[in-house]
Automatic annotation (TrEMBL), chain B:
<keyword id="KW-0145">Chemotaxis</keyword>
<dbReference type="InterPro" id="IPR008207">
    <property type="entry name" value="Sig_transdc_His_kin_Hpt_dom"/>
</dbReference>
<dbReference type="InterPro" id="IPR051315">
    <property type="entry name" value="Bact_Chemotaxis_CheA"/>
</dbReference>
<feature type="domain" description="HPt">
    <location>
        <begin position="1"/>
        <end position="103"/>
    </location>
</feature>
<keyword id="KW-0418">Kinase</keyword>
<keyword id="KW-0808">Transferase</keyword>
<dbReference type="InterPro" id="IPR003594">
    <property type="entry name" value="HATPase_dom"/>
</dbReference>
<protein>
    <recommendedName>
        <fullName>Chemotaxis protein CheA</fullName>
        <ecNumber>2.7.13.3</ecNumber>
    </recommendedName>
</protein>
<keyword id="KW-0597">Phosphoprotein</keyword>
UniProtKB/TrEMBL annotation, chain C:
<dbReference type="Pfam" id="PF00072">
    <property type="entry name" value="Response_reg"/>
</dbReference>
<keyword id="KW-0597">Phosphoprotein</keyword>
<protein>
    <submittedName>
        <fullName>Response regulator</fullName>
    </submittedName>
</protein>
<dbReference type="InterPro" id="IPR011006">
    <property type="entry name" value="CheY-like_superfamily"/>
</dbReference>
<dbReference type="GO" id="GO:0000160">
    <property type="term" value="P:phosphorelay signal transduction system"/>
</dbReference>
<dbReference type="InterPro" id="IPR001789">
    <property type="entry name" value="Sig_transdc_resp-reg_receiver"/>
</dbReference>
<dbReference type="InterPro" id="IPR050595">
    <property type="entry name" value="Bact_response_regulator"/>
</dbReference>
<feature type="domain" description="Response regulatory">
    <location>
        <begin position="4"/>
        <end position="120"/>
    </location>
</feature>
<feature type="modified residue" description="4-aspartylphosphate">
    <location>
        <position position="53"/>
    </location>
</feature>
Length: 157, 750, 121
């Protein structure tokens, strides 16, 4: 199963986001970064990888690393079931798969909808988010994709 | 396409021309006297000069020009290409390469050296035959003939009188020239050759009319009766009076292309005195126009139109000759056709096209995926129909065959001859030999052996290092060689050939060979082996590849840059290759490198480790063993050794090293892969089971992830899952820890 | 109608420069890499003018010009020799072979166009 989203003529200043669920919290990423959404397939584990790197899978001949977003956010390692999906996203010059429970929504917002991240004590939460959205009484955290994954040749070793 | 892209093309082309130049010069050096070799050498320099001029690379133009001039002397047999002459030329080729590099990358070249060679080249062109001793110390005053830097003055690079076209139609198209200038009388009578060379009298008159105000008088008196007329003859002549601000030379320049094929007279009008202010006197139509300038203009225009029409008639007449002359020219045409056919056949023999590397890589990637896809398909069919007899099965087998052939063909596209790398080596031999005062000849063989481009790109560096080593340490000084009864000139032989799906590169010198006593002592001094180690000759020779080993007693400028043969070996191994040395005292040493033909696919052994599938490059594996309990020996608290034919080899649990399991596996339940490691010693890598052997397509991990220690790359297996390719050297290095000395001596004595 | 130029030069750099210069000036450009290819290409392309190098492998500029002049159909096509040759003797040989005119490399685009205009109607 795989979906792709065409970016329509957006109103000036508006953007589309893909929202997804991890545990009981909602997060989102900009749709422009998302290449496709795939079903979960078992990943080949990588030696010496951080716990949130589940391993690598074959994406039409290319090697795609899978990041367990729950683990990355410090919310415990995911135990994926076939219902889980992988959001294939561009970050800088890399393509990475994000493992999430389910895609929950596609949102069209304007910049005004995005609130700054409140001053919380934990570095992790402050760094991972680009902003906070309040939509229909829900709180959705806009993930900063660049933060997700270590720079090349750094942490992973 | 813009100028920057063209410039890039130019530099690419320079590389090709430089290679052509060097190989030609080396051929001449070997006694080749084929005129086409000399021509090719000349063309290479000539072509570099031509392009360099277009980009205003003046230093390059100046040097290329001097070089070209001297080469032209060789080409016209004025200069005998003796060894001494060629020595200067080879050095000049090196300088030319440096100048190209400096023009491309910025930076400077050794000007003293350049000037010195300019002097030497000029001396050669003037017939001064060099003596071997006369190569040095030219005074820095010498200067190459200056090249005009500006594009608007295309340069004649000498004074032979061949001037560029001085087009100066600045007032082109201006209808009302406010002419201040002089009046000239021109007599122009074309000969028939003018037309046969594609010139047109009408066009010349048209051009002339653009640079001044003129009146024309057509002289058709020579025109014979129609039946007597030669259709290709020239019967018209013109007298022109022109008033122009341009000089007489400018007027003559209009006829530049035609002047050999016509009678031409250009002189200041006699009607005009030295008084520049006198109005123009049109001749011969209307002297009364003196007082009536507009009338003159009209008249002149009419006259001009008539004259041009006449000229056009003349050229049409000439053109009409085609049909009339056809019959008698048939023979010529047939001959030309035959020549064309021969040319076409010659062209077909070695036709090539240029393809962007990205396109080839994309194709290779696609074929890689096709291979994986085909394997996946086969696997699922086999799973569903184990009998293997159905039509589907047979079709699949054919598909597999075809896929393999497509893959081979695609890989062949990237295959390139090793020639360019070999050619680079000859310069290194020259330069290093000069530096250390040795006389050395590089002989190459099998330069056309092909290997994947990525491999070629990566062997240059280790090969360079080995060549430097051979020149610096391998070959003795001329004195030593003479004393040993050898030719004072040493020989290094570089050979490439294909052998069982790999490329074999051999580097042989006829020097003194490895001094085993010294190597052994050095290894003991450097704690690489135990003082009492009992090593075979071969083992001693291979010690030079051990990390931290350097054979030179004194670190020299040439090969002592902190890089040892261990680094060479490592880079060869990183390419999936192996290197070994054999040496005979007094007779020389031979290094043998065996490399894969491509880095895109790899022959691997597919193994299972802790439930994971891994691929181990086949080239690293010496043999596989089923360990017996009696062969496993504990060594200290954590180490285990396996005895193989009375030698002890450390066991490395791949699963542990990669952190796939927390406790060591029981060796008896698994399989040991005996691998060759960097230091010359061996390791037994423990894996759980062997699944089989297959060729795999190498996929980069770095593209989307990062480098993973112990893992060389990834690949995709028949079931579509990703498997990791083991980096054997890294795993062995990780297992080595601190116990280097013990292991080396164990491996060596074993 | 666009004027058609056949260029014959073994240097990729010069071929590309010619191509850019001529295309920018509104000419249609056909290219060949040496004299042999030039003669092959000539048949199908019917050029208004030919620009050729002298020093080329297989068949040099002199041979190429002679080949064109021997061709019944193209013997009146203007041929400009484009070369760095600064030797008067080369110039003569080109003329004897049947060259219409010449241009010294490196060429200024405007001058190349002028020279072509000069030999074509």
């Amino acid at each position: 199963m795989s979906m792709s989203y065409a970016v329509k003529n957006l109103v000036q200043g508006s953007q589309e986001l893909i929202a997804f669920r991890i545990g009981d919290q909602e997060f989102c990423v900009n749709i422009m970064s998302v290449r496709e959404i795939r079903g979960w397939t078992p990943a080949t584990p990588m030696p010496h990888a951080p716990a949130y790197v589940m391993g690598i899978v074959n994406l039409r001949g290319a090697v795609l690393p899978i990041v367990d977003l729950s683990a990355r956010l410090g919310m415990g390692e995911a135990e994926p079931t076939p219902r889980y999906v992988i959001i294939v996203a561009h970050m800088r010059e890399r393509v990475v798969g994000l493992l999430v429970e389910a895609v929950s929504d596609i949102l069209t917002i304007t910049d005004e909808n995005i609130q700054p991240v409140p001053e919380v004590s934990s570095d992790l939460e402050r760094q991972c988010a680009r902003g906070i959205l309040a939509i229909d009484k829900r709180m959705i955290c806009l993930i900063d994709l660049d933060w997700l994954f270590p720079e090349k040749e750094s942490e992973a070793a | 396409m813009d100028m920057n892209e063209i410039k890039e093309i130019f530099f690419q082309e320079c590389e090709e021309q430089l290679a052509e130049l060097e190989s030609g010069l080396l051929k001449l050096n070997d006694g080749d006297r084929d005129p086409e070799t000399v021509n090719a050498v000349f063309r290479a320099v000539h072509s570099i000069k031509g392009g360099a001029g277009a980009f205003g690379l003046d230093d390059l133009v100046s040097f290329a020009h001097v070089f070209e001039t001297t080469l032209d002397c060789v080409r016209s047999n004025k200069l005998e290409p003796t060894q001494d002459v060629l020595k200067v030329m080879l050095k000049s080729a090196d300088v030319l390469a440096d100048l190209v590099a400096a023009s491309r990358d910025g930076g400077s070249v050794d000007e003293t050296r350049t000037r010195g060679l300019v002097k030497e080249l000029e001396a050669l062109a003037h017939g001064d035959v060099p003596s071997p001793a006369s190569h040095e110390a030219p005074k820095p005053a010498a200067k190459a003939p200056a090249a005009a830097p500006k594009a608007e003055s295309p340069k004649p690079t000498d004074d032979s009188g061949f001037q560029p076209i001085p087009f100066t139609f600045d007032d082109f198209g201006s209808d009302e020239p406010a002419i201040e200038g002089s009046t000239y009388d021109i007599m122009f009578k074309p000969r028939r050759e003018l037309y046969s060379k594609g010139n047109e009298a009408a066009l010349l008159l048209r051009d002339l009319s653009r640079i001044g105000e003129m009146s024309i008088n057509c002289d058709a008196t020579a025109l014979p009766a129609l039946d007597k007329m030669d259709p290709e003859g020239s019967y018209f002549g013109w007298t022109i009076s022109i008033k122009t601000a341009k000089s007489e030379d400018d007027l003559r320049a209009v006829f530049e292309f035609a002047e050999w094929d016509c009678d031409l007279e250009v002189k200041p009008s006699e009607a005009e005195s030295s008084d520049e202010e006198l109005p123009m006197i049109p001749v011969p139509f209307d002297l009364s126009a003196l007082d009536d300038a507009p009338a003159v203009d009209d008249k002149a225009e009419e006259t001009l139109a008539a004259a041009v029409a006449a000229a056009e008639t003349a050229s049409n007449v000439a053109k009409a000759a085609g049909a009339a002359a056809r019959a008698e020219k048939k023979e010529t045409a047939a001959a030309a056709a035959a020549q064309n056919n021969a040319a076409a056949a010659a062209a077909a023999a070695g036709q090539t096209i240029r393809v962007d590397l990205d396109r080839v890589d994309r194709l290779i990637n696609l074929v890689g995926e096709l291979v994986i896809n085909q394997a996946m398909l086969s696997q699922s069919v086999v799973e569903n129909d184990a009998t293997g007899t159905s039509a589907v099965n047979i079709g699949l087998e054919e598909l597999q065959q075809l896929t393999r052939e497509i893959q081979d063909s695609v890989m062949a596209i990237r295959a390139q001859p090793v020639k360019p790398v070999f050619q680079r080596m000859s310069r290194i031999v020259r330069e290093v030999a000069d530096m250390v005062g040795k006389s050395i000849r590089l002989v190459t063989e099998g330069e056309n052996t092909e290997v994947d481009k990525t491999v070629i790109d990566k062997i240059a560096e280790p090969l360079t290092h080995m060549i430097r080593n051979a020149v610096d340490h391998g070959i003795e000084t001329p004195e030593k060689r003479e004393a040993a009864g050898k030719d004072p000139e040493g020989t290094i032989k570089l050979t490439a050939k294909h052998r069982s799906g790999r490329i074999l590169i051999e580097l042989a010198d006829d020097g003194g060979g490895i001094n085993r006593e010294r190597v052994k002592q050095k290894a003991i001094d450097n704690d690489l082996i135990a003082p009492d180690a009992n090593l075979s000759d071969e083992e001693i020779d291979n010690l030079i590849f051990a990390p931290g080993f350097s054979t030179a007693d004194t670190i020299s400028d040439i090969s002592g840059r902190g890089v040892g043969m261990d680094v060479v070996k490592r880079s060869i191994q990183a390419l999936g290759g192996r290197i070994s040395i054999s040496s005979r005292p007094g007779l020389g040493s031979t290094f043998t490198m065996s490399l894969p033909l491509t880095l895109a696919v790899l022959d691997g052994m597919v193994v299972t480790v802790a439930g994971q599938t891994l691929v181990v490059p086949l080239t690293a594996i010496v043999e596989t063993l089923q360990p017996e309990a009696s062969a496993i020996h504990s060594f200290g608290a954590t180490q285990r050794l396996i005895s193989i034919r009375n030698s002890f080899c450390p066991l490395v649990d791949v699963g542990r090293i990669l952190n796939f399991r927390s406790t060591q596996a029981n060796p008896v339940e698994g399989v040991a892969l005996l691998v060759e490691s960097e230091g010359g010693g061996q390791r037994a890598l423990m894996v759980d089971a062997i699944q089989g052997q297959r060729q795999v397509v190498i996929k980069s991990l770095e593209a989307n992830y990062t480098h993973v220690p112990g893992i060389a790359a990834a690949t995709i297996l028949g079931d579509g899952r990703v498997a990791l390719i083991l980096d054997v050297d890294a795993v062995v290095a990780a297992s080595r820890g601190q116990s280097l000395k013990a292991e080396m001596s164990l491996a060596a004595t074993g | 109608m666009k004027k058609k130029v056949l260029t014959v030069d073994d240097s990729r750099t010069i071929r590309n420069m010619l191509l850019v210069t001529l295309n920018n000036a509104g000419f249609e450009t056909i290219q060949a890499e040496d004299g042999v290819e030039g003669l092959e290409v000539l048949e199908g392309c019917n050029p208004d003018v030919i620009v050729t190098d002298i020093n080329m492998p297989r068949l040099d500029g002199f041979g190429f010009i002679e080949g064109v002049r021997r061709n019944e159909k193209y013997r009146a096509v203007p041929i400009l020799v484009l070369t760095t040759e600064s030797d008067a003797e080369k110039k003569n040989r080109a003329r004897q072979a049947g060259a219409t005119g010449w241009i010294v490399k490196p060429f200024d685009p405007a001058k190349l166009i002028d020279a072509i205009e000069r030999v074509t109607a």
